[in-house]
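Page 42, continued from yesterday. The earlier attempt failed because a stray header line got pasted into the input along with the sequence. Redoing it now with the clean sequence only.
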Amino acid sequence: MLKLDHNPIGSEGLNALIKGIHTNENLKILSLTYCNLDVGCSRALFEMLIYTKGKVEELYLQGNNFRNEGFIQIM
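This time it went through. Structure tokens are written below.
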């Protein structure tokens, strides 16, 4: 589990973080609530989720500003 809730990471920070963890085969839960995220990191989250060896089962994104466009990209 990686819990980064209530940290003002922002989309740029999350994009950098995902470059390091996107191929992690042990991460099952990622919590990013209220991290000042927006549509700018949606694609990176999507690519992390579709990684074939990835095991992320739970992703928490409450309190961010993805809007419809961002959530569509993630899903």
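Notes: The chain is about 40% helix and 10% strand.
Reminder to self: strip header lines before submitting.
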